[in-house]
Design goal:
Elements: E1 7-11, H1 17-27, E2 32-36, H2 40-46, H3 58-65, E3 70-73, H4 76-82, E4 85-88, H5 108-120, E5 125-129, H6 137-147, E6 155-159, H7 169-174, E7 179-183, H8 187-200, E8 209-213, H9 214-245, H10 249-257, H11 278-291, H12 295-322, E9 331-335, H13 350-360, E10 364-368, H14 374-381, H15 390-396, E11 397-400, H16 403-406, E12 412-415, H17 427-433, E13 439-442, H18 449-455, E14 458-461
Parallel strand pairs: 1-2, 1-4, 2-3, 4-5, 5-6, 7-8, 9-10, 9-12, 10-11, 12-13, 13-14
Pathway: Nucleotide-sugar biosynthesis; UDP-alpha-D-glucuronate biosynthesis; UDP-alpha-D-glucuronate from UDP-alpha-D-glucose: step 1/1
EC number: 1.1.1.22
Pfam family, one: UDPG_MGDP_dh_C
Length: 466
């Protein structure tokens, strides 16, 4: 069969670019994948035995394809020049300055990438927007590229949002629910869609590859994240009702989720959702709606975020209340700091909010997470949005590499991440080394609460009166 594409470049070697291209290289041995980044440190890590991100199964794939048809490089111009197809998977954080501050997506890095392509390309390219962007962002990329177009160079711009979740990135990429490709509905646009589709068809059944117009594709990505986050906020809102009435949120979620129209996934009540994207993408959607003069729609989605803030704060307040309204100078063990299990990522993790509130009340924290580096925890907890006094935080926080050390003489344990290993710890031993009364606050509903109560723990969890 004719090879429609032989060389792909990906700009941005982060949580999306790295795993996506690694799996593509693994599934398409005849395509040469080059992942480039302006961060030399990140690229060096991708070329080492300690990858810059942790994902189950990722290292095995990287090791197998690296320097065969998978390359990590800081030489961005060369990679752009050689490739027929270029993914842009740079970060699109919430703007923290100027117009739309705190809500709009900052497209600076996407624009930088587009300008780099415009400057270096000497042949035609398919440019694929993989980053999550506002609706009509592809138009801006198109303007930049086409305004700088050289003779004999033409650009097709596609939207191909990524739906992988962290912690399951490799499995999601190997076996996605769907691949979405948006493009211009012209002959050239449709041909570009077909070409990218051909790449995915190397391992994904054609029925699962969906093509739409560009704006639908861009909006679908924001919509999917908004729907997912909305389910969590919905169940979390009910968890408060459960705690006040004696209903059990797990039972409610099960009963509701068995309706096949509703479905059972993503109804796990928790301390709140975290991660780099849900909040950012919904804020972006809200901002877009306001710009379109649709204030009712904006307010509707804003509630998903407000409910999440409420949940994180409500859980933290409950800890303080249970500990006799004072945590001042009390040692509190924090189990888990990542925003979910099987990742070392802490972006927007609810653990930050919980720790912030406890620190403000004078608690001493002993933090244990199996994958998050101590340096990362300190950098998160000493950031300007958490404290005005980083030195105070450094004094009040210890990061432990062993959960049993973290609980010694602690008044309470707070579970912030649902790591499997927290279920199999020796809680008899833990109880023995803690201050009494010993409290456990299970923000993830993963522990055996009956067994813990039998040991002597006072247990509090989300969505159930114990
Ligand atoms: P990330 O911060 O981990 O990685 C982005 C990388 O791009 C960084 O390494 C940065 O150095 C690099 N970069 C920025 N500008 C550059 C430039 N001009 N040239 C070269 N490199 C540049 O971000 P991420 O988590 O991979 O997210 C990337 C995009 O994908 C975002 O838009 C995000 O919303 C979206 N997304 C993320 C996830 C996820 O699970 N993290 C899932 C789906 C979609
Ligand atoms: C999410 C989406 O699931 C992906 O499809 C999407 O590609 C990605 O965002 C993105 O655009 O970045 P991710 O944030 O990596 O993926 O992880 P999720 O599994 O969605 O979890 C997000 C947060 O919600 C976590 O803090 C998790 O603990 C929490 N959560 C999830 C719950 O509290 N309850 C649930 O039932 C499910």
């Amino acid at each position: 069969e004719e090879l429609k594409i032989t060389k792909i470049c990906c700009i941005g070697a982060g949580y999306v670019g790295g795993p996506t291209c690694s799996v593509m290289a693994y599934k398409c041995p005849n395509i040469r994948m080059t992942v480039v980044d302006k961060s030399a440190e990140r690229i060096e890590a991708w070329n080492s035995d300690k990858l810059p991100i942790y994902e189950p199964g990722l290292f095995e794939i990287v090791k197998e394809r690296r320097n065969k048809n998978l390359f990590f490089s800081t030489d961005i111009p060369t990679a752009i020049r050689e490739a027929e197809l270029i993914f842009i998977s740079v970060n699109t954080p919430t703007k923290n300055f100027g117009n739309g501050r705190g809500r709009a997506a900052d497209l600076k890095y996407v624009e930088d990438a587009a300008r780099m392509i415009a400057e270096t390309a000497q042949s035609s390219k398919i440019v694929v927007e993989k980053s999550t962007v506002p609706v009509r962002a592809a138009e801006s990329i198109m303007h930049i590229l086409r305004a700088n177009q050289k003779a004999d160079v033409r650009y097709d711009i596609l939207s191909n949002p990524e739906f992988l979740a962290e912690g399951t990135a490799v499995a999601d990429l190997i076996n996605p629910d769907r691949v979405l490709i948006g493009g211009e509905q012209t002959d050239d646009g449709l041909r570009a869609i077909e070409t990218l589709s051909w790449v995915y068809e190397r391992w994904i059944p054609k029925e699962r590859i969906l093509s739409t117009n560009t704006w639908s594709s861009e909006l679908s990505k924001l919509a999917a994240n908004a729907f997912l986050a909305q389910r969590i906020s919905s169940i979390n809102s009910l968890s408060a009702v459960c705690e006040a009435t004696g209903a059990d949120v797990s039972e409610v979620a099960k009963a509701v989720g068995l309706d096949s129209r509703i479905g059972s996934k993503f109804l796990q009540a928790s301390v709140g959702f975290g991660g780099s994207c849900f909040q950012k993408d919904i804020l972006n959607l809200v901002y877009i709606c306001e710009g379109l003069n649709l204030p009712e729609v904006a307010a509707y989605w804003q509630q998903v975020i407000d409910m999440n803030e409420y949940q994180k704060t409500r859980f933290s307040q409950k800890i303080i209340e249970c500990l006799f309204n004072t945590v001042s100078d009390k040692r509190i063990a924090i189990f888990g700091f990542a925003f979910k299990k099987n990742t070392g990522d802490t972006r927007e993790t609810p653990a930050i909010t919980v720790c912030k509130i406890l620190l403000e009340e004078g608690a001493k924290l002993e933090i244990y997470d199996p994958k998050v580096e101590a340096e990362q925890i300190f950098s998160d907890l000493t950031s300007a949005s958490v404290t005005e006094n980083p030195e105070f935080v450094r004094q009040a926080v210890k990061v432990q590499s062993d959960p049993y050390t973290a609980v010694e003489r602690a008044h309470a344990i707070v579970v912030c991440t649902e790591w499997d290993e927290f279920q199999s710890l020796d809680y008899n031993k833990i109880y023995g080394s803690m201050m009494k009364p010993a409290y456990i606050f299970d923000g993830r509903k993963i522990l055996d609460h009956d067994a813990l109560q039998k040991i002597g723990f006072h247990v509090q969890t989300i969505g159930k009166k114990l």
